[in-house]
Amino acid sequence: MAELPELERERKKMNQLFVGQRFRAISLLKESWANVSIEQLEQGLVGRQLLYVERRAKGIVFHLDDGRRLLLTVGNGALFHTTTSADTEAGMTDSADSIDAIASVTVQPQLLISFDQGSWNVTGARTLSLQWLSAKEMDDIAKEWGLEPLSRNLNAALFQSRFAKRRTALRTALTNQALIAGISPAIADEICFGAGIMPTVKTETLSSCDWEAIYTSMVQWLQEAIEQPGAPTYAVSGRQGEACSKCRTELSDVLISGKVSVYCSSCQHEHAPEAVCTHG
User: Fold this and answer.
1) What crossing angle do the helices spanning 208-227 and 4-17 adopt, rounded to 10°?
2) How far does CA 201 lie from the centroid of its chain?
3) 3-state secondary structure at position 6
4) Cα–Cα dist 18/165, whole Å
5) Given a cut of 70, is residue 171 above it in pLDDT?
6) Residues 27, 31, 35, CA angle at the centre, nearest 5°?
7) Which residue from 107, 185, 214, 262 has the highest number of Cβ atoms inside 10 Å of its Cβ?
8) What is the average pLDDT across 158-167?
9) Residue 51: what are its φ and ψ, rounded to 5°?
10) In angstroms, rounded to a whole number, what is the distance separating the alpha carbons of residues 61 and 243?
């Protein structure tokens, strides 16, 4: 799936460029990617006004003026591209965050949505799902997701309480979408690395100090990744065998719930360094 930081940037971009405009057209490369026919999508969407765009977990939700929702989820490799009327008049297209994304303009989009004054498209995604939903249907889906990791209502204490009854590896707990939404295995590895805690540690052994370090690491990593253009930069994920960016120790890997997790044996331990906690 496309990572949370990339989706959050697209959400912000579309809210800045297209809110208040009407949908003029939609095209989908494969009809099987949608839960309704292309004709139903066009009939329901074209002419409707976009109220705002929301990111929920690893999905982008378009809110329409008739109360309906359009939920998009995309897999790894997705490239997003935006064109506005001003870009077209100037013979330009927007930065699409990378050279690959700029090149993707010439590729047939997997999804193309046109508005009054521009368009937004997706290319390169390994998977793509588009759901045309009522407000209730969207709410029913969202009930399966946990709290948003960057929610203003979330703090270290509430974050810790989400895992109170869990007895599992930390990395497995962090990727449980019913507890905290939108955290992938790769991001979980980065969170553990930032907190100085092993991804294999059992959640029931962690102290309040540990949970504070984990929460702080999560917020800091996500905020920095959102501000960084392009795909997220990983310090440990996918870098087994390379030197740790902090101490130069060779990064190790371990299987957790059947998936590879990468860590630094020198920087990460069973508990967080006390220096990272604001209180004991």
Assistant:
1) 50
2) 25
3) helix
4) 43
5) yes
6) 105
7) 214
8) 94
9) -80, -50
10) 39
Asked if 6 and 13 count as a contact pair (C-beta separation under 8 A), the reply is: no
Tokens of 153: 């209502």
Q: Summarize pLDDT for 54-103 with one digit per residue, the tens.
A: 999 999 999 999 999 999 999 999 999 999 987 766 665 554 544 344 44
Phi, psi (deg, nearest 5) at residue 78? -65, 135
What is residue 274's three-state secondary structure? helix
Paired tokens of 274? 């006390």
Q: pLDDT: is 102 or 7 the higher one?
A: 7
The 10s digit of each residue's pLDDT in 184-195 is 999 999 999 999
Evaluate if residue 261 carries a pLDDT over 70: yes
Tokens representing 203 are: 């959640």
Give every CB contact of residue 245 below 8 A, 6+ residues apart in sequence.
235
| Contacts of range 39-47, beta carbons closer than 8 Å, 24 or more positions apart | 40/132, 41/130, 41/132, 44/68, 44/132, 45/70, 45/132, 47/22, 47/23
